[in-house]
Structures are given as structure tokens and as C-alpha cells.
Amino acid sequence: MASQDHHHHGGHSHDDDHHHHHHHGKTALMLALCTSLRDKYSLAAVTNDIFTKEDGEFLVKHGALPEERIRAVETGGCPHAAIREDISINLGPLEELSNLYKADLLLCESGGDNLAANFSRELADYIIYIIDVSGGDKIPRKGGPGITQADLLVINKTDLASAVGADLAVMERDALRMREGGPFVFAQVKHGVGVEEIVDHVLRAWEIATGNRRR
Description:
Layout: H1 14-22, H2 26-37, E1 43-49, H3 54-61, E2 70-74, H4 79-83, H5 91-101, E3 105-108, E4 128-132, H6 139-142, H7 145-149, E5 152-156, H8 161-164, H9 168-178, E6 184-186, H10 195-210
Parallel strand pairs: 1-2, 1-3, 4-5, 5-6
Helix pairs in contact: 2-10
């Protein structure tokens, strides 16, 4: 779904602001995961934008990881990939990064807003789906593969709830029901709220997948 939140808040440039609303905080979450995990784990990141590389540039600008560990993929030359959300377009860069850096964790941001076709388990071990409260409290009960199948649902920008008249208790109830008890986290990623909990979920999955203990 396209973001409807175009309110601009002071304190940072118009560009950043538009960018984050457009992505429901996906790039902000990538940045938060990088900064939380990079000291103990070898990381690499691939971002995905339909026509620009601004997600990758955002991560570089904010020092998420050393620049050489970040790849930005433009799907614009291949509209079919963007429409079908064909995450395989990331496999080249992911493999290359993985081999170069012996990465413990590869973070991959999917481009576009319609995540319907992204749920290929061959391509991702762990999927986080992020929605944003500004879209209203009906989003969880509308379902869709992101809501129901993602390993973790992040309900971001909880600070906007009162402004948009969204009821977090309703979102919580619907998220639990739609996800059949699967985990979700309320967050304000840009302000660091909920990030520790998200990282904990990711590391728990990493431990199970690798048989290693977290560091």
C-alpha cells in the first residue's frame, strides 16, 4: 500500500522525511539493524529501489556499514521485477557480498510497497514486514501475506496513533489473530523504540538457523 503520510516534521531535510514515509521506515529499520549488530557480526546490506539508489545512499550517508558492504539495486530497468517484486534480482549482489565478507547476516530490503510476491523461503531465512500506524488501524485485519506470513510484523510509528485516530489495542488484537499468535513488535524505529526487541527476534532466528549462540 502506498504511504499516505506526507506530513513533514521539523529537524531534518524534506528529502529524508519524504523518503521515510514512502518506505514506512524500511530503510530506517535497516539502519537500526546495522548499527545494533555490526560490532559483533559481519554484515552486508542490499537495498532495493525502483528508480533510484537513495535507500543505499541513505545507509551510506548515515554510516550504517562501511560503504563497500552496501549494494543498491535499481529495479527500474526491469519493471517486471519491480511489479512482481522479484526478490531474485538481489541474489547476485547478495552472493557477491556474502562471499566477500563471510557475512553472518545479510540484510536485504525489498523495493516497492506491495510485498505479495516476496515470500519465497528459498530467498530469505527470516522476513520482517513493517507497516506504519499512519495507514490506520485496519491494516492488520486486512491481512495479506506480509501481515500473516512474515516471521515478524513491525508496527511502526506508534507515536502517530492519536493523530490519525488509530487504536493500538485494536491493531494488537488483529495482529495476534491474523498471525495466529506469531510475533509482532510496536516500534518507533527512528527513535530507537522497539529496536532491541526486533534485534532479539532476529538473533533468536539466527541462533536456530546456524546452531550458534549469539555473541
